[in-house]
Amino acid sequence: MAYKAPVRDFAFILKDVLDIDRYSNVPGFADASFDLVSQILEEGGKFAEEVIAPINRAGDQHGCKWDNGVVTGPPGWKEAFKAMVEAGWPALSTDPEYGGQGMPRVVATAVGQMTAGASAAFSMYPGLTHGAYEGIHANASQEIKDRYLPKLSSAEWGGTMNLTEPQCGTDLGLIRTKAVPNGDGSYAISGQKIWISSGEHDFTDNIIHLVLARIEGAPEGVKGISLFVVPKVLVNDDGSLGERNGVQCAGLEHKMGIHGNSTCVMVYENARGWLVGEENAGLKAMFVMMNEARLGTGLQGLAIGTAAYQHAVEFAKDRLQGRSLTGPKNPGGPADPIIVHPDVRRMLLEAKALVEGGQMFILYTALHADLQYAQEEATSQKARDYMALLTPVVKAYLTDRGFHVASLGMQVHGGSGYTEHYAASQYLRDARITMIYEGTNGIQALDLVGRKLAANGGRAIMSWFAELDAFVAENQSDAAIKPFVDAVASTKAKLQEATMWLMQNGMQNPDNAGAASTDYLQLFGVTALSYMWALMAKAAQARISAGDPDPYYANKLQTGRYFVERITPDADAHLAKLKTGAEVLMAMPAEAF
Amino acid sequence: MAYKAPVRDFAFILKDVLDIDRYSNVPGFADASFDLVSQILEEGGKFAEEVIAPINRAGDQHGCKWDNGVVTGPPGWKEAFKAMVEAGWPALSTDPEYGGQGMPRVVATAVGQMTAGASAAFSMYPGLTHGAYEGIHANASQEIKDRYLPKLSSAEWGGTMNLTEPQCGTDLGLIRTKAVPNGDGSYAISGQKIWISSGEHDFTDNIIHLVLARIEGAPEGVKGISLFVVPKVLVNDDGSLGERNGVQCAGLEHKMGIHGNSTCVMVYENARGWLVGEENAGLKAMFVMMNEARLGTGLQGLAIGTAAYQHAVEFAKDRLQGRSLTGPKNPGGPADPIIVHPDVRRMLLEAKALVEGGQMFILYTALHADLQYAQEEATSQKARDYMALLTPVVKAYLTDRGFHVASLGMQVHGGSGYTEHYAASQYLRDARITMIYEGTNGIQALDLVGRKLAANGGRAIMSWFAELDAFVAENQSDAAIKPFVDAVASTKAKLQEATMWLMQNGMQNPDNAGAASTDYLQLFGVTALSYMWALMAKAAQARISAGDPDPYYANKLQTGRYFVERITPDADAHLAKLKTGAEVLMAMPAEAF
């Protein structure tokens, strides 16, 4: 079957729930009326369905080929990439100063979800390119910006992020790649980087690597790391391409999934690089890209889940097997389609409730990325707080759930799903990486409880709790959406209890915070999606109350009911688990494992 | 790293917890003193570690090759299979009348776990062979038994089960393969079977297929299905091999995992077959093999989890990354091993608690397989009841948890786990099939709530509840194991409440039973493992109280504490979910998915 871009869902969220026309005084929104955005969604959906989705399976089956440093993408990928660049999609939300269209982030996020749903591995090429764009845009000198941003904005050139080395993944303080000043303002970069997504390919004439390295004599640890821009091909002052730089792809990683993306070992040998931002401030600069990438990873995990769900629905409607427990529903056929069975519906609704709730959560968060630039400081501060607070939840909760949905999708297929004849296996394998890269989900949980909760005296979480409380107060007498409002009140109360527990016990012993972190993040995710579903339920109910006969709205409420009834009970389990503390984890001697 | 057979765990379970020496009056146990069994475990563990485990990766990487109907296994597999046959492992628990060693099922199950942990795909060759042995042993005429059983018992010949056809997996009533009497007592079998594990290979001189087919003129549906034995090579009356029969492997399935096992499309064209059991009673006969296979699948899923856990522990002890939240634990090194981090320990302990609890559950169930043959009818009846009741729980809960553990194992590895350089990916991919084959886990849940609970007026579940109640009553004043006893009482109360809910609501509307089935099975699994952990805690505490200084027992209690504190809270969530009923699932129109 074909991937179907969820244009309708995004339109509902952007118009009925978030009502983006309200924000015309926020930068980027003046030219982004919903009417225009709606056309962008339609066109983006069409492009994802017609150009990207058809090449996804070939990526899995053929992968990338390495030959003496030259990497060739899967059949059809170069052409699709060029079509994407020509259509202007990579520049949708980039800075007009560098050739971008300046659309709000929330719009680009919706389009990005469709790209990732059509092909997750493919979406990593423009995704990493955009990350490099952001890293340079936020940190680099004007000269570097002028030199690289226009072609990164359009994705005429690719971009990458080079952090990991064999001895350091999570712990970037261990980086050994070194940078020696050349005396002309450039540095000679030498070292080995691994797991570099999109590190080398044949889609673009140049690839701009952002590389973390240690300047000779810099302090030990994370305080001695600097960020450099290292082009694959040196760029002359007139913008033309010059000599090949001293960077090579030494090999490709063999991975469980995302075969269409080239995961490269990159070797830098006296490659010329230029400092991005200040000396020894590389980690801070890189975090701009990492936050970007973390939201993108959450989006990707969920988007794979969306595609996996669609395939499972198609299979469940087609596959005839067994009879309904309440009597034949397809009496003329040899059996009923398996979608008649309650347990098959349970799997599909679990997927649907997570996917649609997750889509809302992604766009809600992306809207706050835009609102960071609002003129009123209160709005801007709240948006910055939310972005910091919600990024690890978006990344970890939505990738965990995306993988869960992909696994449900396979289960609906039965044995067929385990064969490579169907797409279910690719979705499961592709989705699994999203729980790991851009900071494992355990690292996200530590970031949430160790940094984000406490920042500014807990201002972000208190502000978010206040928003939920206000929603509950405002809507608690609305009988039509009472279960949704109750779910927000109830999950929020549990998350608040968990937060208090963390404050009391994490201070006493930091291991308590570490021990509670994953369950806390999961509880946060359940609470956030309860709120997302309540926002959607309110909007859908408003349409119904206004007499809109489209069954879309009643079905939205029905899907949300699944979330309330069948997913929110996990909140209690997470709360109970996290309150057991660190002792049960830390008492076991390492040799007893 | 190398797979380490959990010999010590099995010895603890068989001696300290189950005390198998108690059963010397039960068939098979007279010659199975624990002293002898302990040697068997040692030797079985050695064989798994030294002969089977080393070929596991090659199976994943090379898979099986098909060439014009001839299937060749991965490098080294034929040799390992022959070594296994020569060492006599397949005949460990088979009937001495056919050359078997007649050991209890519980002993063979422990050894089988080690084989499957060393290589799940490999274990399917002897596993399916044993299934065919069981199917013939339980149902066939003496002539057929004499002809096939000795060589199936030893695994000099392979065996298979042929159920699935393209149009029928779960719904065997749709089978089309036909059988036409030849007039000489044999039948001409024609049709296509798919997904036949171990269907063709180069390990043995003959392969004995058990095939479900429809005799010409038989009734429609499951009441017209018969079971046939169809050898790949016809067997002469003197036992020598004759002509090739009309059965061919038409191709291999490309699968996400278990690449070392040949998953075959089998084409039967007037193949000669002989009826096993009565005409049109094939499904009942096949169920003997299917129950066998279901326990074996639960065992396999858990065994893969065991191996995945071991690899994760090794990685977590070796990988240096970051510092402990409470100060450096490896101050002389560049970083601490990641096993110092609470969230890494959470993942490892979750895995360990599930694996060790699951091992106990497998052996507890297998012991009841043996006790079915006890002389006292009360013991035998209870054992038969338990086997029927627990088989779907063992199959579904332990394979779900096995996959979960394999996924945790990958997560502990971080990015390394996603590359095919480590074994984590193979374990994840291999484990996933166990949730699907031999009846999807959804089918197991329906079997549990739809058939097993209600059989004989609910005798089995009431008997099992009585056992748990008796345990609680007997041990509730034992302060040393109080948390374990409380967990049994608490989870059992929830399972009982769920059972009452099912009785009341499933009768009114069968969709309520279907809607509750998976959460009911999961709740059953949590309850069963709570009980298993309580049994192990009691045995470990008895050793400690008797002054045994081995830290194994204290560590066992510590692992069990994790289960009580961090896994039993799921029981509440499952209960809350299942009580929401079918309406939320069934109200959604199919076209709205």
Describe the structure.
Two copies of one chain form a homodimer. By secondary structure, chain A is an alpha+beta fold. Among the domains of chain A are: 7-142, Butyryl-Coa Dehydrogenase, subunit A, domain 1, CATH 1.10.540.10; 159-281, Beta Barrel (Butyryl-CoA Dehydrogenase, subunit A, domain 2); 441-584. Helix content of chain A is 57%, strand content 11%. Chain A has a five-stranded mixed β-barrel with strand order 4-5-11-7-6. A two-stranded antiparallel sheet of chain A has the order 1-2. In chain A, helix 2 (34-52) runs parallel beside helix 5 (105-118), helix 6 (120-139) packs antiparallel against helix 8 and helix 9 packs across helix 17. The relative contact order of chain A is 0.09. Chains A and B meet through helix 8, helix 9, helix 10, helix 11 and helix 12 of A and helix 8, helix 9, helix 10, helix 11 and helix 12 of B.
Features:
homodimer; 593 residues; alpha+beta; Butyryl-Coa Dehydrogenase, subunit A, domain 1; Butyryl-CoA Dehydrogenase, subunit A, domain 2; five-stranded mixed beta barrel; two-stranded antiparallel ribbon; 19 helices
